[in-house]
Amino acid sequence: MPPDSELPQVDWDDARRVILSALAEDTGADKGGPGEDVTSASVIPAELCFKGVIEARHALVVAGLPVAEEVFRLMVPEARFIANVADGDAVAAGTVLAVVEGPARGLLTAERTALNLLQLLSGIASLTRLYVERIAGTGCTLLDTRKTIPGLRRLSKYAARCGGARNHRMGLFDGVLIKDNHIAVCGGVAAAVRRAREAGRSGIEVECDTIDQVAEAAAAAADIVLLDNMAPETLRRAVAVVAGRCRTEASGGVTLDTIRAIAETGVDFVSVGRITQSAPAADIGLDWS
To answer: 228 an active-site residue?
Structure first.
């Protein structure tokens, strides 16, 4: 399960929105048609039942299994879905993640949508876990970002939690992050922080490109300074300048090869966009049993 974290929960209102949209896209219902799988309707007898196993084809961290189950149940309410593992579990190649059975036509219609979501989310969780493992023991926490596939943010961030990361802000609506263009328009770091405070905001984070900006943000009582694209030696200087007055987050160009050295500089957080933006999909199959 995800290390040192509470079990993540699926936002089901959002998940069902995604599922219904994906099913409509695949069956043509989004274009005003009746919504159909012409192949299954043509070649699968209506009375035929299907039993299949969902199997990991390589080692991975599972995420999205309840979402896949919901895809099948929305298409085939009487479907039977038996999960053998839980989201957040690390599994070996060949592990049977779940068994699904029920009317063949409906299950085969739902198959691609279920696997697409399961593969995407498990890919995110798997890559996230690799990053988490690289910084184990440093006291630094991995964060995700807003770099997500449009329309899939909440599910992607759910998968990142399954992998062991913590979520950064969900969107523009739930956290203040003052970036370079905000600073330029406001006329400086201190002015931007002051205006955010005057607007009644808390948890104010400021993106800093230089040590001078870090000092200004800490003096202005920012809650977090985001240290953007700084080398490890510069990060150490920034942490020393902050001197515990606020929390620190390193971001920008972080890779599996560099994250350990970054975390060891003393920053509180490291944020990585690629875990939700470009994680490769996991290889997971559904085969007749």
So the answer is: yes
Which one from 26, 133, 209, 228 is the annotated catalytic residue? 228
pLDDT, tens digit, for every residue of 103-123?
A: 999 999 999 999 999 999 999
Both 284 and 251 in one domain: the answer is: no
Out of 207, 216, 249, 268, the active site residue is 207
In a domain, 3, yes or no: no
Dihedral pair phi/psi, residue 7, rounded to 5°: -65, 130
User: Which range marks the domain in which residue 214 is found?
Assistant: 166-271
Is residue 61 within 8 A of residue 125, CB to CB? The reply is yes
> Which residue in 178, 181, 124 sits closest to 148, CA to CA?
124
Residue 5 has pLDDT above 80, yes or no: no
Helical packing angle, 65-75 and 104-134, nearest 10°:
170
Q: What is the mean pLDDT of residues 11-29?
A: 96
The string of pLDDT tens digits covering residues 132-174 is 999 999 999 999 999 999 999 999 999 999 999 999 999 999 9
**Interatomic CA distance for residues 262 and 271, integer angstroms:** 11
- Our answer to whether residue 111 is catalytic in this structure is no
Q: Is the Cβ–Cβ distance between 74 and 24 less than 8 Å? A: no
